[in-house]
Amino acid sequence: MIDLSIYSSIANPPRGDDLDRCMAEAIHEAEVAEAAGFSGFFVGEHHQDKDGFLPSPFVVLAAIAARTHQIRVGTAVLLLPLHHPIRVAEDAAVLDIVSGGRAVLGVGLGYQEADFRAIGIDRHERVPRFEESIAILRQAWTGRPISHKGRAFDIDGVRVTPRPLQRPGIPVWVGGWVPAAVERAGRLGDALVLGPSFTLEENRALVAHYRAAAEAAGKTPQIVLMRDAWVADSFEEAARIYGTQVSDAYRYYWRNGAIAFRGFASEAELRFEAIWKDRIILGAPEACIAAFKHWSDVLGVTSFMLRLRHAHSGGPPHRKIVKAIERFGRDVIPHL
């Protein structure tokens, strides 16, 4: 069985106006997603983006948890090197309690220099901060005093309360787009969250690398695949509503050096009609069903996280996202 979750980019380009409306829309979309049969709702984190991209994901997730009952609520991803792990352990534990044991902590290294500059963290220290933080989180959620001495953190005798409801702790999903990151996910995480923009073949290589690392670490591999996706009456309708949005987002990532787009020589190459195949899942319900099953068969993936809204274009609009969520729930999810 294949399960679908939602990832929401909470922002409003170009100036970050009316973010109260954007956050209210995301909360409503989470309620609609739960009713439609989605298994989770996730938000990300950035700092200093002019579009107002969400800097405090735990706050919004607590609001979503209060308005839902079954759906998982989590970060995808929290930029872990920007935070002190004791504070993350506390916030995540409280979210787990508020949600009744539904929290997931998705974490990543981060790549945008502005995020690190805003917090006063040296970007070159992100790997040791990241790896040590995960070890500290694991200790913190046991309820026992933490003993850790490393390059980034020195903690002795600190006990984190309250403990999360989930035992032995909150699931830690690690985001990764490159071999070093997926190896780290296999070694340290409970699951790998693959990014939404690589092709099927590119993801195949990353999945193989991750599985080898997880098995070497004595872990059971678990993969969550983010995808840009849209469902409508036809491919043409889906492309009309969603195509411009995803192309705008890809051009932003190309300008900011995202690894998934380094093979493109210019922004002009990132036209929807040139990039969608083997990368984006969209079209009529039967086409989406077939695509999810194909990706699942090829990669051995049973969990997908769909990115419907794009922060760097601002759309599609809320009413269309709600309609798409309901359509996925009515015409796609029951057949997966």
What do these coordinates show?
- With 336 residues, the chain is an alpha/beta fold.
- It has a single domain (3-238, 280-335), classed as TIM Barrel (Alpha-Beta Barrel).
- Helix content is 44%, strand content 18%.
- The strands form two sheets. It has an eight-stranded parallel beta barrel with strand order 1-2-3-4-7-8-9-11, surrounded by eight helices.
- Helix 3 links the parallel strand 3 and strand 4.
- It is globular and about 60 Å long.
- The mean pLDDT is 95.
List keywords for this structure.
globular; 44% helix; alpha/beta; 8-stranded parallel β-barrel; 336 residues; 18% strand; TIM Barrel; two-stranded antiparallel ribbon; 11 helices
Number of helices: 11
Spatial strand arrangement across the major sheet: 1-2-3-4-7-8-9-11
- Ranges where pLDDT stays below 50 over 5 or more residues in a row are none
Please compute the radius of gyration using only Cα atoms.
19 Å
- Computed structural class: alpha/beta
Shape: globular
| CATH structural architecture | Alpha-Beta Barrel
CATH C-level label? Alpha Beta
Q: Which fold name is given in CATH as the topology?
A: TIM Barrel
List the helices and strands and how they pair.
Blueprint: E1 3-8, H1 19-36, E2 40-43, H2 57-67, E3 72-79, H3 85-99, E4 103-108, H4 113-119, H5 126-140, E5 146-149, E6 154-158, E7 172-176, H6 179-188, E8 191-194, H7 200-216, E9 223-231, H8 235-255, H9 272-275, E10 281-283, H10 285-299, E11 303-307, H11 318-331
Parallel strand pairs: 1-2, 1-11, 2-3, 3-4, 4-7, 7-8, 8-9, 9-10, 9-11
Antiparallel strand pairs: 5-6
Helix pairs in contact: 1-2, 1-11, 2-3, 3-5, 6-7
